[in-house]
Amino acid sequence: MTSDEKYRKVAAFIDQARRVVAFSGAGISTESGIPDFRSPGGVWSRYDPQDFLYQNFLASHEARIKYWRMSEEFLGAILQAEPNAAHHALVEIERLGKLDCVITQNVDGLHQRAGTSREKVIELHGTVHTVSCQECGARTSRGEVSERIRGGVAVPYCDLCSGPLKPDTISFGQAMPEQETREALERSRACDLFLVIGSSLVVHPAARMPVEAAMNNAKLVIINLSDTPHDHFTTVLLREPAGKAMQGILSAYRQILAG
Ligand SMILES: [Zn+2]
């Protein structure tokens, strides 16, 4: 099957679907210029992941200094990035009434910046854009905390209780957010089209979601540059960049709508 034929097939699935769940991973963000921190040469290869274990963050001021330095560097890349064609295609699919939700492994907030409704984005690994006190749970905006760091504070602490502040991203050694994980699984089971965009589906619980969708008779479409463990039971597999594939699918869908 050619790419164009695949686009038309996926567009027809969207047209027939009542609930489309999109699942996005690092591959959608790398096309916006955000480095995949798990890949070679990424942020992590210049730091020791042991320094970023949640338990170490809680235990040591030194670990917090390193954590915040790395985190501000990563934030800098995110703030320079713009949403790409794949993000915009999902906004359009929502506008056309087909999008149930976007489940994302990304912490950059690019779906929301592109225009996807906040309530439709489930962030499995949290977000860089808010910060919470690890003692009392008080939440503040990242901008305000970054301001303090630029002003010379190496590690920010809570104004209310002096507990350590940490961005609301899920660190190594930190539990997955319960409510988001549960909701993502429920929506995966209830959808009729599960669209993977730029994820290798190897991290749990992400790996389970397409399985749950397929077991409940949803069609499974995977757009990813590398192999995933689920390629053998996909309905349509596109080994292409996210932006190119989503643009192709969206224009095929517009043609269907135009009759
Ligand atoms: Zn506090």
Overview of this protein structure:
This protein has 259 residues and is of the alpha/beta class. It has two domains: 1-33 and 83-125 and 176-259, TPP-binding domain (Rossmann fold), CATH 3.40.50.1220; 35-80 and 128-169, SIR2/SIRT2 'Small Domain' (2-Layer Sandwich), CATH 3.30.1600. Strands 3-2-1-7-8-9 form a six-stranded parallel sheet, sandwiched between helices. A three-stranded antiparallel sheet has the order 5-4-6. The radius of gyration is 19 Å and the shape is elongated. It starts with a helix and ends with a helix. Helices cover 42% and strands 17% of the residues. The structure holds zinc ion (ZN). Zinc ion binds next to loops.
Secondary structure elements and their pairing?
Blueprint: H1 3-16, E1 20-24, H2 26-30, H3 54-59, H4 61-80, H5 85-95, E2 99-104, H6 110-114, E3 121-123, E4 126-133, E5 139-141, H7 142-150, E6 165-169, H8 178-190, E7 193-197, H9 208-215, E8 219-223, E9 236-238, H10 242-258
Parallel strand pairs: 1-2, 1-7, 2-3, 7-8, 8-9
Antiparallel strand pairs: 4-5, 4-6
Zinc ion binds next to loops.
Biggest β-sheet description: 6 strands, parallel
Give the % helix: 40-55%
Q: Give the CATH superfamily of the largest domain.
A: TPP-binding domain
- Cα end-to-end separation: 23 Å
pLDDT < 50 stretches: none
Major sheet strand order: 3-2-1-7-8-9
Write the CATH architecture name of the largest domain. Answer: 3-Layer(aba) Sandwich
Decide which structural class fits the backbone.
Answer: alpha/beta
The overall pLDDT, averaged over residues, is: 94
The general outline is elongated
Provide the list of bound ligands, each named once: zinc ion
Name the beta content range. 15-25%
Series of secondary-structure elements, N-terminal to C-terminal: HEHHHHEHEEEHEHEHEEH
Question: Could you say what the CATH topology of the largest domain is called?
Answer: Rossmann fold
Q: How many helical stretches?
A: 10
Question: Rg from C-alpha positions?
Answer: 19 Å
| DSSP strand tally | 9
